[in-house]
Amino acid sequence: xxxxxxxxxxxxxxxxxxxxxxxxxxxxxxxxxxxxxxxxxxxxxxxxxxxxxxxxxxxxxxxxxxxxxxxxxxxxxxxxxxxxxxxxxxxxxxxxxxxxxxxxxxxxxxxxxxxxxxxxxxxxxxxxxxxxxxxxxxxxxxxxxxxxxxxxxxxxxxxxxxxxxxxxxxxxxxxxxxxxxxxxxxxxxxxxxxxxxxxxxxxxxxxxxxxxxxxxxxxxxxxxxxxxxxxxxxxxxxxxxxxxxxxxxxxxxxxxxxxxxxxxxxxxxxxxxxxxxxxxxxxxxxxxxxxxxxxxxxxxxxxxxxxxxxxxxxxxxxxxxxxxxxxxxxxxxxxxxxxxxxxxxxxxxxxxxxx
Length: 355
Prior knowledge:
Layout: H1 2-21, E1 32-34, E2 36-39, E3 44-52, E4 55-58, E5 64-69, E6 76-77, E7 82-86, H2 89-124, H3 130-161, E8 165-167, E9 172-177, E10 184-185, E11 192-195, E12 200-207, H4 211-216, E13 222-224, E14 240-246, E15 252-258, E16 271-276, H5 283-286, E17 290-295, E18 300-302, E19 305-311, E20 317-321, E21 323-328, E22 331-336, E23 343-345, H6 348-354
Antiparallel strand pairs: 1-23, 2-17, 3-12, 3-16, 4-11, 5-7, 5-10, 6-9, 7-8, 9-11, 12-15, 13-16, 14-15, 17-22, 18-19, 19-20, 19-23, 21-22
Helix pairs in contact: 2-3
């Protein structure tokens, strides 16, 4: 029994020695992010909206019941594709009647032509007077004029029958369908709304006091689309257009920022923010306009304290209090508490555990 106890004690001592000699596991390296600083003069923020450069509300020029509806909201259509059809039976009967009248006028013109030819031959043989020949000539002219008038009416009826079919004016996406099968379509009533998704822009109303700064520093204008991947932070537009007219009621002008084509997730009606340059900001003000940003996931909130874990030169994290500004998408502006060369822990939970 004593021998067994001694062996067990010796084994325990050996295990403790091996654990003491084993090197300590190094803590996992913390993921570090640099403070994002950007020189920006876009201190004036405006609310805007995404709109399509080409957006069309389609209606009809004739009245009738909707008998065929071939699209729904969200469908992609090609140019010239039939969207809906209106009951055109009455119009088709009108075309048939007009065509019959043309046939009758053509027959009358044939008879008048034959009579004119006979009267011409009789006049040459001096069997009839000049007045009789002129009456035959007048009848032929009247028959020809009547034929032309009826042909024009037939063409108008055929053209009007085309108004009962609504086609897409260009390739695009159906935004809204305002009618259902059986609804009565009336001239001017909105039936289908569609837009071209390949050309979108951000539109915002600019106060009169800021128009001069926009015209002078159009390259400093930025936009952002909260919630849209890749556009939740200030972006450079492809083109900036300031409309020359000012609204006399609101005293605002309109600014348009073209968006890149083919960006997923964009649609007319999305909320947008527009950042405008500060009026009168020159090169001297540029240096003081640097702003620092951090991802919102790097912020630590404890009771009334807001801070971040700053990594020192030895790689050790330390909690530092900061003052935050406006949130822009997944980034937040840091007003004070950090310097441009600071390194911040991207995962504050792991940094707090490593202290």
